Automatic annotation (TrEMBL):
Encoding gene, per UniProt annotation: map
Positions contributing to substrate binding: H78, H177
Record-stated family: Belongs to the peptidase M24A family. Methionine aminopeptidase type 1 subfamily.
Binding residues for a divalent metal cation 1: D96, D107, E233
Naturally occurring in which organism (per UniProt): Buchnera aphidicola (Sarucallis kahawaluokalani)
Domain of life: Bacteria
Protein name: Methionine aminopeptidase
Length: 260
């Protein structure tokens, strides 16, 4: 097993996949209102993906039944969209979009807030977002991979929140999930970042304990204490001297290219 280093022709394809995934999250935003079901949101995303001659990476993945993962409030990740699940004011919602375009995957997710929510929920979403964003200025060739996790951990330790340890970022390309795996906490690791690596970073941050469990549908991951959970995810290319955020949204307040 070796880590596949992507060259220009493939990077160009992954930029296209990344842009499409980012657009799904922009297009879905106006639909996130009280009363809509998560199945309806999933349908809108699926239609957009198909319209762009792409397919969902989630649909049928190990039997996953939908095009997106939609995880509301105490659901940490892998929520299955449902006709029975209506959004309410104050909900915090993660939509996780994976597309395949020209055989290449891109994977991204963000939090949405339905109407207005309580302070702690805003702060949790902000901490999850920042825990992803603070890794961008450190990513460059030569960086030991565990420093990404250490950076996230140091940041979250200063908040009242906790990091879920069971899920991690992952290499991505022709495969949905490939090496290297990117843990969101410090650990022993000898992998060194190299130019051409493409991987996701996708920290899941909990308001209470970091413990989670899998529900009876064998997919939905829920916090053990039923407190809130939030996640942000981007697909990131290691460049010659920094990184490029392949799933950056047009209106997102980050740089696309970091020279570090
Ligand atoms: N998109 C998730 C990730 O970030 C994986 C979802 S797998 C699915 O890696 F089958 F639930 F869609
Ligand atoms: Co991912
Ligand atoms: Co994802």
């Amino acid at each position: 097993m070796h880590i596949y280093l992507k060259k220009n022709k493939i990077i160009e394809k992954m930029r296209i996949s990344g842009h499409l995934a980012s657009q799904v999250l922009r297009k879905i935003k106006p639909y996130i209102i009280s009363g809509i079901t998560t199945a309806e949101l999933d349908n809108i995303c699926q239609n957009y993906i198909i319209q762009k001659q792409a397919i969902s990476g989630c649909l049928g993945y190990h039997g996953f039944p939908s095009s997106t993962c939609i995880s509301v409030n105490e659901i940490s990740c892998h929520g299955i969209p449902s006709k029975k699940k209506k959004l309410n004011n104050g909900d915090i919602v993660n939509i996780d979009v994976t597309v395949i375009k020209n055989k290449y995957y891109a994977d991204t997710s963000k939090m949405f807030i339905v109407g207005k929510t309580k302070k702690i929920a805003y702060e949790l979403c902000k901490a999850a977002k920042n825990s992803l964003y603070i890794t961008f200025p450190i990513i460059k060739p030569g960086l030991p991979i565990n420093i990404i996790g250490r950076t996230i951990q140091k940041y979250i330790q200063k908040t009242p929140f906790s990091i879920v340890k069971e899920y991690c970022g992952h290499g991505i390309g022709l495969n949905f999930h490939e090496i290297p795996y990117i843990l969101h906490y410090d650990h022993y690791n000898t992998i060194i970042l190299k130019q051409g690596m493409i991987f996701t970073i996708e920290p899941i941050i909990n308001a209470g304990t970091n413990e989670v469990f899998c529900m009876n549908d064998n997919w939905t991951i829920c916090t053990k204490d039923h407190n809130l959970s939030a996640q942000y995810e981007h697909t990131i290319l290691v460049t010659k001297n920094g990184c490029e955020i392949l799933t950056k949204r047009k209106n997102e307040k980050i740089k696309r290219i970091y020279s570090n």
